[in-house]
Amino acid sequence: MWSTGGWVQDKSGWWRPAAGGSGFAPTTFDPGTLSNASLSNGNLTATRSNTSTGGAQSISYKSAGKYYWEDVVGASHGSTDFVGIMAASYGYFQAINGNTGPGAGVWLGGGQIVNNGGTTGSFGGAVNAPGTVIRNAFDGGNGKFWQAINGGFWENNAAWDPATNTGGRTYPTAAMAPAVAFSQYGSPQVGDNITADYGATPFAYPVPSGFTAGWPA
């Protein structure tokens, strides 16, 4: 086993809390960033409160370091509901509408991979089923971002891997924070929700080599 912070990785690649480990302080969603949404579960679950565009962002912005975290879909019905990263200057409407700017993520309703306002690929269809895990890897030093769905390939490409800095999206230079945005498009429903795991609980999938297990506050 080897450890990062208060977590240890076993021989199968799974991350578990270290016995007696103090861990680190993971981030949460910031109540001050809420728009048409509410928070619960220790500010880790963002829930849509109406069918207008809205969302939530983390309290912690980073421009350096390598971090891994997971988001879990509870319910999603907006066609461009967004999970990813964005700068403080990038709004929720920009994220769900595909406006140019410092944001990168996935649109859950169709599985489109988006970056800087444009689509750069696809996960091959909708990724909004309840229980879907969106894996995220952020490399601030190289200005790269990768996502994967459940146990699938990073960026839906078998050759790409954040552990080796292969492939990925080069995002516009800015300090970024994890974020979710609820879309006004499609068939949005009050109560749609997404839960983030920023390292407070064990992850569903292995952390890429060289990345911190979680996004610190």
Structure description:
The protein is mostly beta strands. The protein has a single domain, classed as SPRY domain (Jelly Rolls), CATH 2.60.120.920. Helices cover 3% and strands 36% of the residues. It contains 1 helix and 17 strands. Strands 4, 5, 7, 12, 13, 14, 16 and 17 form an 8-stranded mixed β-sheet that branches. Strands 6-15-8-9-10-11 form a 6-stranded antiparallel β-sheet. Strands 1-2-3 form a 3-stranded antiparallel β-sheet, with no helix packed on it. It is globular, with a radius of gyration of 16 Å. The N terminus is likely disordered.
List the helices and strands and how they pair.
Elements: E1 2-4, E2 7-9, E3 15-17, E4 37-40, E5 45-48, E6 54-57, E7 66-75, E8 82-86, H1 92-97, E9 103-107, E10 112-115, E11 118-122, E12 133-139, E13 144-149, E14 169-170, E15 177-182, E16 193-197, E17 212-213
